[in-house]
Amino acid sequence: MTFRDQMIFISMSLNRLVTDIPGTTNATFGKDLVGYEMPQPKIGIHRFVFLLFKQKCRKTVRNPPVSRERFSTRKFAEENELGLPVAALFFNARRQATARRR
């Protein structure tokens, strides 16, 4: 899961990375390579992307990301020979200003 609107010059921010998910189950059975970190978007509309890649076999991810910031999905997929995504989910979320307490 990546947060696309972290800052325009930072590019994508990695929120979670799970590998080795058996095809007959869900992500809870995979290996959490980068644990979930809740996005902290500023006010406005923000874009989030979930991508699913098919690994050739288990434990094929040899180069885990060193940082959540400036994460490049394309570079990560190329370095780990993942090919193109087999599924993707994209959504927008809006964070509104909260009312001040009196």
TrEMBL record:
<dbReference type="GO" id="GO:0005634">
    <property type="term" value="C:nucleus"/>
</dbReference>
<dbReference type="GO" id="GO:0005737">
    <property type="term" value="C:cytoplasm"/>
</dbReference>
<dbReference type="InterPro" id="IPR036610">
    <property type="entry name" value="PEBP-like_sf"/>
</dbReference>
<keyword id="KW-0963">Cytoplasm</keyword>
<dbReference type="InterPro" id="IPR035810">
    <property type="entry name" value="PEBP_euk"/>
</dbReference>
<dbReference type="GO" id="GO:0009910">
    <property type="term" value="P:negative regulation of flower development"/>
</dbReference>
<dbReference type="GO" id="GO:0010228">
    <property type="term" value="P:vegetative to reproductive phase transition of meristem"/>
</dbReference>
<protein>
    <submittedName>
        <fullName>Uncharacterized protein</fullName>
    </submittedName>
</protein>
